[in-house]
Design a protein that fits this description.
The chain has 237 residues and is an alpha/beta fold. It contains nine helices and nine strands. The strands form two sheets. The protein has a seven-stranded mixed β-sheet, with helices on both faces. A two-stranded antiparallel ribbon has the order 6-7.
Protein backbone atom coordinates (compact mmCIF):
# COMPACT_ATOMS: atom_id res chain seq x y z
CA UNK A 1 0.00 0.00 0.00
CA UNK A 2 1.38 3.44 -0.93
CA UNK A 3 2.07 5.94 1.81
CA UNK A 4 0.09 9.13 2.12
CA UNK A 5 2.04 12.09 0.65
CA UNK A 6 3.67 13.96 3.53
CA UNK A 7 2.41 17.45 2.64
CA UNK A 8 -1.06 16.49 1.39
CA UNK A 9 -2.95 17.63 4.50
CA UNK A 10 -1.07 20.94 4.60
CA UNK A 11 -1.84 21.74 0.97
CA UNK A 12 -5.47 20.70 1.30
CA UNK A 13 -5.72 23.10 4.25
CA UNK A 14 -4.22 26.11 2.50
CA UNK A 15 -5.37 25.35 -1.07
CA UNK A 16 -7.88 28.19 -1.31
CA UNK A 17 -5.52 30.82 0.08
CA UNK A 18 -2.66 29.45 -2.02
CA UNK A 19 -4.72 29.66 -5.20
CA UNK A 20 -5.77 33.22 -4.34
CA UNK A 21 -2.24 34.49 -3.63
CA UNK A 22 0.11 32.53 -5.88
CA UNK A 23 -0.07 35.04 -8.74
CA UNK A 24 1.22 37.90 -6.62
CA UNK A 25 3.02 36.40 -3.60
CA UNK A 26 6.58 37.76 -4.05
CA UNK A 27 8.55 34.56 -3.42
CA UNK A 28 6.51 32.76 -6.07
CA UNK A 29 5.61 35.43 -8.60
CA UNK A 30 8.73 37.61 -8.57
CA UNK A 31 11.48 35.23 -7.51
CA UNK A 32 11.06 31.51 -8.25
CA UNK A 33 8.71 31.74 -11.22
CA UNK A 34 10.72 34.13 -13.43
CA UNK A 35 13.81 32.00 -12.86
CA UNK A 36 12.07 28.73 -13.67
CA UNK A 37 10.37 30.18 -16.75
CA UNK A 38 13.73 31.43 -18.01
CA UNK A 39 14.93 27.82 -18.24
CA UNK A 40 12.07 26.58 -20.40
CA UNK A 41 12.72 25.76 -24.04
CA UNK A 42 10.26 26.90 -26.70
CA UNK A 43 6.89 25.40 -25.73
CA UNK A 44 4.69 26.39 -28.67
CA UNK A 45 3.39 23.25 -30.34
CA UNK A 46 4.98 21.03 -27.67
CA UNK A 47 3.30 18.54 -25.35
CA UNK A 48 4.11 19.43 -21.75
CA UNK A 49 3.57 17.65 -18.44
CA UNK A 50 3.13 19.91 -15.40
CA UNK A 51 3.89 17.58 -12.49
CA UNK A 52 2.66 18.91 -9.14
CA UNK A 53 0.70 21.69 -10.82
CA UNK A 54 -0.92 23.18 -7.72
CA UNK A 55 -3.69 25.62 -8.70
CA UNK A 56 -2.49 25.75 -12.30
CA UNK A 57 -0.45 28.92 -12.65
CA UNK A 58 2.33 27.28 -14.67
CA UNK A 59 -0.10 25.17 -16.69
CA UNK A 60 -1.95 28.33 -17.67
CA UNK A 61 1.29 30.03 -18.75
CA UNK A 62 2.24 26.99 -20.83
CA UNK A 63 -1.17 26.77 -22.50
CA UNK A 64 -1.20 30.51 -23.19
CA UNK A 65 2.17 30.10 -24.93
CA UNK A 66 0.92 27.44 -27.27
CA UNK A 67 1.66 24.17 -25.46
CA UNK A 68 -0.61 21.14 -25.19
CA UNK A 69 -0.68 20.68 -21.41
CA UNK A 70 -1.39 17.73 -19.15
CA UNK A 71 -1.19 18.73 -15.49
CA UNK A 72 -1.63 16.80 -12.27
CA UNK A 73 -1.44 17.26 -8.53
CA UNK A 74 -1.93 14.97 -5.55
CA UNK A 75 -4.24 17.44 -3.78
CA UNK A 76 -7.90 17.16 -4.76
CA UNK A 77 -8.52 20.78 -3.82
CA UNK A 78 -5.57 21.99 -5.89
CA UNK A 79 -6.88 19.98 -8.83
CA UNK A 80 -10.27 21.64 -8.38
CA UNK A 81 -8.73 25.13 -8.41
CA UNK A 82 -6.55 24.25 -11.42
CA UNK A 83 -9.56 23.00 -13.37
CA UNK A 84 -11.52 26.16 -12.53
CA UNK A 85 -8.59 28.31 -13.62
CA UNK A 86 -7.77 26.43 -16.81
CA UNK A 87 -11.11 25.28 -18.11
CA UNK A 88 -10.54 23.63 -21.50
CA UNK A 89 -6.98 24.97 -21.82
CA UNK A 90 -5.40 21.87 -20.23
CA UNK A 91 -6.17 18.38 -19.01
CA UNK A 92 -5.89 18.29 -15.20
CA UNK A 93 -5.68 15.02 -13.26
CA UNK A 94 -5.25 13.96 -9.65
CA UNK A 95 -2.13 11.83 -9.23
CA UNK A 96 0.98 11.42 -7.08
CA UNK A 97 4.40 11.54 -8.76
CA UNK A 98 5.78 9.82 -5.68
CA UNK A 99 4.22 6.74 -7.33
CA UNK A 100 4.70 5.28 -10.83
CA UNK A 101 3.02 7.38 -13.51
CA UNK A 102 1.30 4.37 -15.07
CA UNK A 103 -1.41 6.51 -16.63
CA UNK A 104 1.18 8.20 -18.90
CA UNK A 105 2.63 6.55 -21.98
CA UNK A 106 6.33 6.19 -22.75
CA UNK A 107 7.89 9.00 -24.83
CA UNK A 108 4.71 11.07 -24.85
CA UNK A 109 5.94 14.53 -23.77
CA UNK A 110 8.48 17.06 -25.02
CA UNK A 111 8.88 18.77 -21.64
CA UNK A 112 8.29 17.91 -18.00
CA UNK A 113 7.98 20.86 -15.62
CA UNK A 114 8.01 20.28 -11.87
CA UNK A 115 8.00 23.52 -9.86
CA UNK A 116 8.45 23.51 -6.07
CA UNK A 117 7.05 20.01 -5.62
CA UNK A 118 9.97 17.56 -5.44
CA UNK A 119 10.83 18.58 -1.88
CA UNK A 120 7.85 16.50 -0.72
CA UNK A 121 9.17 13.25 -2.24
CA UNK A 122 11.97 11.30 -0.59
CA UNK A 123 12.92 8.99 -3.47
CA UNK A 124 13.98 11.06 -6.44
CA UNK A 125 15.54 8.06 -8.18
CA UNK A 126 12.20 6.57 -9.17
CA UNK A 127 10.59 9.94 -9.88
CA UNK A 128 13.36 10.98 -12.27
CA UNK A 129 13.21 7.57 -13.96
CA UNK A 130 9.50 8.11 -14.57
CA UNK A 131 10.07 11.62 -15.91
CA UNK A 132 12.76 10.21 -18.22
CA UNK A 133 10.42 7.44 -19.38
CA UNK A 134 7.58 9.76 -20.39
CA UNK A 135 9.85 12.19 -22.24
CA UNK A 136 10.51 12.01 -25.94
CA UNK A 137 14.04 12.11 -27.24
CA UNK A 138 15.15 14.86 -27.27
CA UNK A 139 13.13 16.24 -24.36
CA UNK A 140 13.64 18.50 -21.36
CA UNK A 141 13.03 18.40 -17.63
CA UNK A 142 12.88 21.70 -15.74
CA UNK A 143 12.37 21.74 -11.99
CA UNK A 144 12.75 24.02 -8.99
CA UNK A 145 13.31 23.11 -5.34
CA UNK A 146 14.46 24.63 -2.10
CA UNK A 147 18.16 25.41 -2.30
CA UNK A 148 20.19 22.89 -0.24
CA UNK A 149 22.21 25.70 1.37
CA UNK A 150 19.06 27.54 2.45
CA UNK A 151 17.34 24.37 3.60
CA UNK A 152 20.25 23.31 5.79
CA UNK A 153 20.55 26.80 7.28
CA UNK A 154 16.85 26.71 8.10
CA UNK A 155 16.84 23.12 9.39
CA UNK A 156 20.27 22.62 10.94
CA UNK A 157 19.14 19.53 12.83
CA UNK A 158 21.72 16.98 11.79
CA UNK A 159 24.19 16.25 9.01
CA UNK A 160 24.06 18.22 5.77
CA UNK A 161 24.87 15.00 3.93
CA UNK A 162 21.70 13.18 5.04
CA UNK A 163 18.22 13.43 3.56
CA UNK A 164 16.00 14.40 6.47
CA UNK A 165 12.29 14.94 7.05
CA UNK A 166 11.77 18.46 8.39
CA UNK A 167 8.89 20.90 8.67
CA UNK A 168 8.35 24.63 8.66
CA UNK A 169 5.47 26.92 9.61
CA UNK A 170 4.17 28.73 6.54
CA UNK A 171 2.51 32.08 7.22
CA UNK A 172 2.19 33.43 3.68
CA UNK A 173 -1.00 31.61 2.70
CA UNK A 174 -3.63 32.38 5.32
CA UNK A 175 -3.47 30.97 8.89
CA UNK A 176 -0.13 29.34 9.84
CA UNK A 177 0.30 25.78 8.56
CA UNK A 178 3.09 23.31 9.36
CA UNK A 179 4.40 21.98 6.05
CA UNK A 180 6.68 18.91 6.08
CA UNK A 181 9.33 18.39 3.41
CA UNK A 182 12.62 16.61 2.80
CA UNK A 183 15.90 18.47 3.15
CA UNK A 184 18.74 16.91 1.14
CA UNK A 185 22.28 17.73 0.00
CA UNK A 186 23.10 18.89 -3.52
CA UNK A 187 24.56 15.49 -4.41
CA UNK A 188 21.22 13.83 -3.59
CA UNK A 189 19.58 16.19 -6.08
CA UNK A 190 22.01 15.88 -8.97
CA UNK A 191 23.09 12.24 -8.83
CA UNK A 192 19.59 10.70 -9.21
CA UNK A 193 19.08 13.01 -12.19
CA UNK A 194 22.25 11.76 -13.89
CA UNK A 195 21.63 8.13 -12.95
CA UNK A 196 18.19 8.31 -14.60
CA UNK A 197 19.96 9.18 -17.86
CA UNK A 198 19.53 12.96 -18.00
CA UNK A 199 22.22 15.35 -19.18
CA UNK A 200 22.48 18.36 -16.87
CA UNK A 201 22.26 21.54 -18.93
CA UNK A 202 21.98 24.41 -16.47
CA UNK A 203 21.70 25.22 -12.77
CA UNK A 204 20.23 28.57 -11.80
CA UNK A 205 20.36 30.14 -8.33
CA UNK A 206 17.79 32.92 -8.70
CA UNK A 207 18.34 36.57 -7.86
CA UNK A 208 15.17 38.35 -6.72
CA UNK A 209 13.68 40.74 -9.26
CA UNK A 210 13.12 44.47 -8.91
CA UNK A 211 9.40 43.83 -8.46
CA UNK A 212 10.29 41.51 -5.58
CA UNK A 213 12.34 44.35 -4.09
CA UNK A 214 9.33 46.67 -4.22
CA UNK A 215 6.99 44.09 -2.72
CA UNK A 216 9.28 42.57 -0.07
CA UNK A 217 12.33 44.81 0.54
CA UNK A 218 13.54 43.01 3.68
CA UNK A 219 13.43 39.60 2.01
CA UNK A 220 15.07 41.12 -1.06
CA UNK A 221 18.16 42.03 0.94
CA UNK A 222 18.37 38.53 2.39
CA UNK A 223 17.85 36.73 -0.92
CA UNK A 224 20.34 38.99 -2.65
CA UNK A 225 23.01 37.56 -0.32
CA UNK A 226 22.02 33.92 -0.04
CA UNK A 227 19.89 31.67 -2.27
CA UNK A 228 16.40 30.45 -1.51
CA UNK A 229 15.68 28.21 -4.50
CA UNK A 230 17.54 26.08 -7.01
CA UNK A 231 16.28 25.79 -10.60
CA UNK A 232 17.53 23.07 -12.94
CA UNK A 233 17.24 22.21 -16.63
CA UNK A 234 18.21 18.77 -17.90
CA UNK A 235 17.83 17.01 -21.21
CA UNK A 236 16.98 13.52 -22.46
CA UNK A 237 19.13 13.06 -25.57
Amino acid sequence: MSQKPIALDAYETMAEAYAARVDTKPHNAYYERPATLSLLPEVKGKRVLDAGCGPGVYAEWLADHGAEVVAFDVSARMVQFARERLGPKAKVLQADFGQPLDFLEDSSFDLVLCALALDYVRDWDETFKEFYRVLRQPGHLVFSVGHPFAEFALHDTGSYFQTELVDYEWRGFGPPVRVPSYRRPLSAMVNPLLEAGFVLERILEPIPTEQFKREAPQDYEELSRRPGFLCVRAMKR
